[in-house]
Design brief:
Glutamine Phosphoribosylpyrophosphate, subunit 1, domain 1, four-stranded antiparallel beta sheet, binds aspartic acid
Length: 351
């Protein structure tokens, strides 16, 4: 009798293990990677309290997006949810917390892309949409267009039931102070700019403090069905003028996703990311150059970008679930979680 019971338990145990192994074999990897911007983020300039605030903020966004993937939700839903959390958090330069333009306004840009069908949507220069990333998704799903700007984009968002806010919703004391500081530095500047002129009253627009741009947010994900998606949202650069639009809403520059290769969200000095067509170039290096994700992303961020004088970083995940997060600045707020369900949250270069 005892031998029979032992055998029974042994067989049951073996069956359970086999079943578990089988279901794991069939289980597609799920991955979520997020960023909260790249720039001169130095430990020496950060208080432990501030650092904790950022790590907590990243953790909330990461868990929100990952829960969707874990429950079998789409990569698209996951990246939108994670970005929305960061848009609502004043720590980041997106949504509430967006930086100010030279005229003291907040003009937001965002985009989203679905790697399954290469559909994409973007909004640029909007001031009354609470969550620009959701407006970008509405452009993708509810219109025949890819990009809408300014008043038109806002009208479209309102018609599609998105939450609208007065422009004053985006005001934060911190960002206002940054604008005043930069304007003051700009007025005191004596060294010549790109044109050889001595100050911005010449009418030349020059980026005086390119660190003022960090805080852009983004997310990339791989879901249980093997689909990839990417989303990026930003307030752009402090003191921007003349309706300046950065790379974040430009599909192929700041955002790209294709199931054939990878999903990418960029952050950094947008003009350089546009000129390098950053995200699509990484994807092309994989598709046509047969490079792996890490090699392609490293080459673009660590070599091509600084060679032109630009800075920043990107987050990426490929169709197999490999992650890459290169940046050539002092730091980049970044985090990821995969099926191990251990959140990895990093800020500085040497982490
Ligand atoms: N890339 C954004 C822009 O240039 C800024 C950033 O990522 O921090 O608008």
């Amino acid at each position: 009798m005892q031998i029979f019971t032992m055998k029974f338990y042994w067989i049951m145990g073996w069956l359970l293990c086999a079943l578990n192994g089988f279901s794991q074999m069939n289980e597609q990897k799920v991955v979520l990677v997020i960023h909260g911007g790249a720039g001169t983020i130095l430990k020496s300039q950060m208080t432990p309290e501030k650092e904790k605030e950022y790590r907590d903020a990243l953790s909330v966004a990461l868990h929100k997006g990952y829960a969707i993937l874990k429950n079998g939700g789409s990569a698209l839903d996951a990246v939108e949810a994670a970005v929305k959390v960061m848009e609502d958090d004043p720590h980041f330069n997106a949504g509430k917390g967006a930086v100010f333009t030279n005229e003291g306004k907040n003009e937001l840009d965002a985009s989203v892309m679905n790697g399954e069908n290469l559909k994409a949507g973007a909004v640029a220069g909007v001031s009354t949409i609470k969550n620009p990333v959701s407006a970008a998704r509405a452009v993708m799903e509810k219109s025949d267009h890819v990009m809408m700007a300014g008043r038109g984009a806002e009208k479209f968002a309102r018609q599609n039931g998105l939450i609208m806010v007065p422009p004053s919703y985006f005001y934060t004391e911190d960002r206002w102070r940054s604008l005043q500081k930069i304007k003051k530095e700009d007025s005191l500047r004596t060294e010549p700019d790109h044109s050889g002129r001595k100050n911005s009253s010449s009418g030349m627009y020059r980026v005086t403090n390119h660190d003022s741009k960090f805080g852009t947010v983004g997310a990339v994900a791989l879901d249980r069905n093997g689909n990839l998606a990417a989303a990026t949202s930003t307030g752009g650069m402090t003191n921007k003028r003349f309706g300046r639009i950065g790379d974040s809403p430009v599909i192929g520059a700041g955002t790209y996703a294709s199931n054939a290769t990878c999903a990418i969200s960029c952050t950094g000095w947008g003009e350089y990311f546009i000129r390098l067509v950053m995200a699509k170039t990484v994807s092309d290096m994989m598709e046509f150059g047969k490079m792996d994700l890490a090699m392609a992303a490293q080459e673009m961020i660590m070599n091509r970008l600084p060679a032109l004088g630009g800075d920043g970083g990107l987050i990426a995940v490929d169709s197999k679930g490999n992650i890459s997060m290169p940046f050539n600045t002092e730091g980049m707020y970044r985090a990821y979680m995969d099926e191990k369900e251990v959140p990895v949250i990093k800020i500085y270069k040497d982490e």
